[in-house]
Amino acid sequence: KVHVDQVDTDKPGLLLADVGQGRMAYLPWDVGGLYYRHSSDAHRALVADLINHLLPGGRQLRTNAHPLVEIAVMRQPARGRTLVHFINLSGHSQTAYFEPLPLRAIEVELAGRYRSARSAKLEKALPLTPSAGAVKFTLPVLAGYDVVILE
Q1: Which 8-state DSSP code applies to residue 120?
Q2: With a threshold of 0.70, does the pTM exceed it?
Q3: How far is CA 24 from CA 21, 42, 111, 129, in A?
């Protein structure tokens, strides 16, 4: 937030440190609380940038999906597959839920090597493109929910 009485101080807004074999980020202020109250994209972007900075191999998943699409990755090693769940939250409005808006051409890049991808909802195979230790695929349309099965 910006205030007219803002003054510079010697108090840090972010501390970064190497700890053992890892790295640490410490925000000595409640960025989560501010995001919850104000939904500022700058607060979301700050946390996203910190996550990108701290992950040694970068993000596991990259996408162009709208922010109201929740994506969860679930590995099932015993079955030799990975599930990528897509939940379209565009119909959610406070305490009500309406039919979600269909979202199209959701591009996903997921770390790992896979030979096939299939949309359970659309009941069709999705083309895979290899990309430097990852694969890329596009979910053509998302209504309320879908899961892409990667093997």
Answers
A1: T
A2: yes
A3: 10, 21, 23, 34
State the Cα angle at 134 between 51 and 126, rounded to 5°.
115
What is the rounded distance in angstroms from the CA atom of residue 143 to the CA atom of residue 121? 9
Is there a contact between 46 and 31 (Cβ–Cβ < 8 Å)? yes
Report the chain (151 residues): mean pLDDT per 10 consecutive residues: 72 91 92 91 91 88 96 97 97 90 98 97 97 95 98 97
Q: Whole-angstrom Cα distance, residue 7 to residue 3?
A: 9
Between CA 105 and CA 49 the distance in angstroms is 25
- Looking at residue 100, what DSSP letter applies? P
